[in-house]
Design goal:
The chain has 161 residues and is α+β, with helices and mostly antiparallel strands. 41% of the residues lie in helices and 20% in strands.
């Protein structure tokens, strides 16, 4: 790290402490050139990937858009809020875990469909009909057949940690 005073390239860490919250590290440094001391803070930077739409446009990953999608599909369905929150967290974590700088909106849509299939079959059909642009009754029939084969999850997963 360069010295902020003389721009010297060599500094020495004199003291290191974790913050009270445990989310950053405070380092006291000494410049080997000018002997001045300064403090730096080290924090984790988590960046969600950019979402690439079908038309090629890119946008920031937006958890609120994800929540809106779930809310619309689950409108007036008997699904507890904690299950919906857990499903949103699952999708967010999966997107982050991909480790990519960009992710296709289609891929996120597929993740949402898997979560909805576990939560509520009617919500899955609602989402699939819009997401896959159903054109006729045959499209609905195929989706209903897929739903009949899938189990419904009713209990939230315990959070690790």
């Amino acid at each position: 790290m360069k010295c902020p005073f003389c721009k010297g390239p060599d500094t020495q860490v004199v003291d290191t402490r974790e913050s009270e919250e445990g989310d950053s590290i405070r380092r006291r440094r000494r410049c080997l050139s000018c002997e001045k001391r300064f403090t730096t803070f080290e924090t984790v930077e988590l960046r969600m990937p950019q979402v690439v739409k079908q038309n090629g446009m890119r946008s920031e990953f937006d958890e609120e858009k994800l929540r809106t999608s779930f809310s619309r599909a689950l409108h007036k369905r008997p699904v507890p809020t904690e299950l919906v929150d857990a499903a949103i967290d699952n999708v967010t974590q999966k997107v982050f875990a991909l480790g990519e700088r960009e992710v296709a909106s289609r891929q996120i849509g597929e993740m949402v469909m898997k979560e909805l299939l576990r939560l509520d079959k009617v919500a899955y059909i609602r989402f699939a009909s819009v997401y896959k642009s159903f054109q006729d009754v045959g499209d609905f029939t195929e989706a209903v057949e897929a739903v009949r084969k899938a189990p419904v999850r009713r209990k939230p997963k315990p959070k690790a940690g």
